[in-house]
Design brief:
With 236 residues, the protein is mainly alpha-helical. Helices cover 72% and strands 4% of the residues. The chain has one domain. The protein has eight helices and three strands; from the N terminus they run E-E-E-H-H-H-H-H-H-H-H. Strand 2 and strand 3 form a beta hairpin. Helix 1 packs antiparallel against helix 2, helix 1 packs antiparallel against helix 5 and helix 7 packs antiparallel against helix 8.
Length: 236
């Protein structure tokens, strides 16, 4: 006996668990892509309020848009487990190695960054617009803790919700490219070098997270990388 749920044609078959048609998965991926575009746009619009002056509110917006809203879509709309959208340990033995390895590569880039002709512009832009003022060690510690929370939500959105959500209906290659494109667009307003670099980084992180079946390698690499970048901006 088969009972039908009225959420994107998802079907339940007695004795065989959950059966999802190809159309169901395609529609789920379409919803994920549309939600991703809308949430990315709304977060970018909030950037007009200048994160350096409202950094706490900026992080709260990301927590809602990049973590809470995707979770609600997965649980309430799709009636699926967040684990199917990358919120799990996955292949942790491989994942933490990849995460630290990519962070190491990012660290090499950070060492070279001050020697580039566009570093002064990037540093000035981040100090004026994207990071709160740091006047003491306590300010720096607060910034790093909040940055890791921000990066956890940010990485789940791109390398969890979007990547695994679009893979369900679009396939691996399309999901990697689409989430990387949105990741690059999310940096709009920053330097063109950073926008282009974000697209490339999104592809690399997407491939790694798919192989490890979790968004956590992306969080390790990006979270530690951003924390190191904060130190560079304020102390170099």
């Amino acid at each position: 006996m088969t009972t039908t749920r009225y959420i994107f044609g998802r079907r339940l078959t007695e004795g065989n668990g959950v059966v999802e048609s190809r159309f169901t998965r395609l529609m789920q991926s379409v919803v994920v892509l549309c939600a991703g575009c809308a949430l990315t746009w709304s977060t970018w619009r909030f950037a007009r309020y200048v994160p350096s002056q409202h950094y706490g509110q900026w992080v709260v917006v990301h927590a809602v848009n990049d973590f809470l809203a995707p979770l609600l879509i997965v649980i309430l709309l799709f009636t699926l487990s967040p684990a199917e959208f990358g919120l799990r340990w996955g292949d942790w033995q491989r994942g933490w190695r990849w995460g630290l390895g990519l962070f190491g590569l990012f660290g090499v880039g950070l060492i070279a960054l001050p020697m580039t002709p566009f570093y002064a512009e990037i540093r000035a832009q981040y100090r004026a617009t994207w990071l709160p003022p740091v006047r003491s060690v306590a300010d720096m510690v607060w910034l790093e803790v909040v940055t890791l929370i921000y990066m956890f939500c940010w990485e789940y959105f791109f390398r969890g919700f979007l990547l695994f959500g679009m893979k369900r209906g679009f396939g691996s290659m399309a999901s990697v490219l689409l989430q990387a494109a949105l990741f690059g667009l999310a940096h709009f307003g920053k330097s063109w070098a950073e926008i282009g670099g974000s697209f490339v980084a999104g592809i690399v992180l997407g491939i790694v997270c798919l192989r490890c079946q979790s968004f956590l390698p992306g969080f390790i690499a990006h979270g530690l990388g951003h924390a190191a970048f904060n130190l560079l901006v304020w102390y170099r």
